């Protein structure tokens, strides 16, 4: 992972557009991620977010740093004990974590659902994206996301993974390729299904016959024991052992998988991309498709004298360092590798970048 990617974590990914609107359109609607029956937070057609919190005993309430820019959004208290405020500018499209600072205490918004990020359960808000159709819940056949517990001798416990099996898996004897898909720092194995909507992306692509179905396995990358600013001290060996010596054999024994190298891929976002890069270089005999989503790059010399990957996919948001992935892919192509770069326009180090990246990646896998 490059220095820029290491310095940007998911907790601060709520980047605001620099093209702030002058007049706020009053067409606010409840966020689609609200608790049932809750009217706030709300979003409007321009991407502004509005919050309303009942806290009659509180003196100050502010929405977390990053939301609305310039140090967060400070809410104003009325005579009924409600704090209300609107972000100073429109936010990037897609999913964002946030929390409240209430009289100095960090709390979640009681109106919003919670998602695991920043090593805690955070409130979530969704800014409707212009291209959201590819990850929307539609009337198409759906796969299943199931929790599994697999034995891990190296950690002396059972560990959890979530496994997506495509529509029709239970009604056939077919065997499937597998993508091992990793979350970022501060998150866990729930992130790609909940925040990323990976299962819906897959369901919709399969329904449109844009991809051949495959299995996705998501497990905890053992990243969160490393504190912010200390990520370079992360040691890959414990997770590499869990993934390659325990999880992959369990998945191959439990699910109908194709077990050859050409039928196995690994991808990850942010710190999960760093894990992907390291493990694919350490264990190239296990994986044939590599994907780093805002998680660094490969250079031709990294892959020299190793089993050649079928695909190297590199992506980033346009507000990150997009030239890095473009230039790296160009260098790999010049060296004879099948390399693809993708840049998500208008997004930063955040889940809309990674949703779009998975949507672009999936049709390229297992060809």
Automatic annotation (TrEMBL):
Domain of life, per lineage: Bacteria
Keywords per UniProt: Signal
This protein's record includes keyword Protease: no
Signal recorded as keyword: yes
Signal peptide: 1-21
This protein's name: Esterase
